[in-house]
Amino acid sequence: MRKLLVLILCAGCFMSSKAQAEPAPTLELRMNELTQMVKELKGVVEQQQQEINLLRQSKEGPLASPALEPSATFPRYGTKVLPEIGAVADVALRLDSPKTDEEGADRVQVREVELVLGGNVDPYSRLDSTVAFTEESTAELEEAYLTRFELPFDVTARIGRFKPKIGKVLPVHRDSLDTVDDPLVIQHYFGAEGMSKSGVDFTKLLDLPLPTVHQVTLGVLEGGNGEGGTAFGEIKRRPTIYGHLKNYLDISDATNLEIGLSDAIGSRDADASFEINVFGLDATLIHQLNANQTLKFQGELFNIDRSESFIDITDDITDDITGDVTQQDIDGNVWGGYGLADFRMSSQWATGFRFDYVEHVDNPLENPDKAEIGYTGYLTFYQSEFARWRVQLSHVDLVTGEDDNRVFLQGTFAIGEHKHKLQ
Questions:
Q1: Per-residue confidence (pLDDT) for residue 234, from 0 to 100
Q2: Residues of the chain with pLDDT under 50
Q3: How far apart are CA 337 and CA 301, in angstroms?
Q4: Any domain includes 180
Q5: Fewest beta carbons less than 10 Å away: which of 57, 181, 257, 264?
């Protein structure tokens, strides 16, 4: 019995030493096996991609351009390029002191909903469009234009319907304004929301040995104004030619200055002469106090020379004592402008003040006051990049001699992708 126990113990020790003598699979061996599996899977994926490319080429034809392959710049779903789609809604409560003005006062109104579509046509062109919907009217095409990049001499061109690059306010949409409404000079001379016109323009950065950056734009537009505008006539076939020179200077790391000069010539009637000249000057100074606080001063001045428009407009003046009758010619040279001070107090709050002055192009003999003067204060809450709230108080001395007090509460909301977010 004792010998049997000894034999069993010896056998166990032999088996244990044999098991320890046979090494387990090492980590290096496992890594080699995984590497081989990855290579095999990579080969399968490459083979499948080749088959997909052959099927796509047979479907699109031999002339399919390799430049339009899927990429981060040109996303694809199947064989269609996906456009950028967005929508911007503008809702406002307006309380107005006169009770005989337009229907938009003293009520909550969806002033506008913009549907924004855009995307790259190819590596050299981009298409952008904006369709506006309002409560009072059907859909209105605000913009639809093609931008062509990298033309000869590094020129960028736009063709279609767009907002001209005149000054600071005319080129932007309503949701990019610092105030609820456009300055009075823009409303009266160019339209309630500025103007969008069909045409073509060309923009180029000037490479000059100066510390400033210069950009020049030249364009030809169809004639006419925006809604309620008075600068030009309403004959579309008489074009408006415009130019704009923008000058940008970095004064310091925290301060920059932009000065612009604009000029537009057009017609008031169906003749071929350009008897109306609009000259504009704009300036914007921005100072970054810190990461969340910004101070901005912005102003624009416009002069309209319409002397020919008033040559034949006279007013018979009778002297009450002598009875003599004389005629008074009306000067057609008028001007207007605004000054804005905006203080971004934090990442979510901003406040500011705007002063307006505009002389009316209409027959001034009908108005006792020469100009319309406005005072506007506002407070803005930026809920996020896509939601904004604003309250605004305005007092306007009308050319009729009356006063107009206006209270606005505005909400602006955006979804999707769009090129003019709520900054």
A1: 85
A2: 1, 3-8, 11, 13-24, 59-74, 76-79, 310-318, 325-329, 423
A3: 4
A4: yes
A5: 57
Q: Is residue 137 part of a domain?
A: yes
* Tokens at 132, concatenated: 């506006």
Is-above-0.85 flag for pTM? no
Region for residue 178 given its phi and psi (left: phi exceeds 0; alpha: psi -120 to 50; beta: otherwise)? alpha
Q: How far apart are CA 260 and CA 170, in angstroms?
A: 13
- 61 exposure class (CB count in 10 Å sphere: 0-12, 13-18, 19+): exposed
Whole-angstrom distance, CA of residue 207 vs CA of residue 32: 58
Choose among 154, 249, 232, 168: nearest CA to 197: 232
DSSP letters, 199-250, are EEEEEEEE--SSSSEEEEEEEEE-S--STT--SS-S-TTS-EEEEEEEEEEE
Tokens for 406, please give them: 């206006």
Domain count of the fold of the chain: 1
CB 246 within 8 A of CB 260: yes
> How far is it, in rounded angstroms, from Cα 103 to Cα 340?
28
Assess contact for 396 and 372: CB atoms under 8 A: yes
Kindly calculate the radius of gyration of the chain based on its CA atoms and give it in whole angstroms: 34
Structural domain for 261, as ranges: 85-416
Per the document, the length of the chain is 423
CA dist 307 and 331 (Å) reads 6
Could you tell me where the beta strands, DSSP code E, fall in 8-106? 76-77, 80-81, 84-96
Say if residue 11 is exposed, middle or buried (CB neighbours under 10 Å; 0-12, 13-18, 19+): exposed
Q: What backbone phi and psi angles, to 5 degrees, belong to 174?
A: -60, -35
The CATH number of residue 162's host domain is 2.40.160.10
Does residue 53 fall inside a structural domain?
no
Strands 84-96 and 140-151: unpaired
Supply angle C-alpha 85, 87, 89, rounded to 5. 175
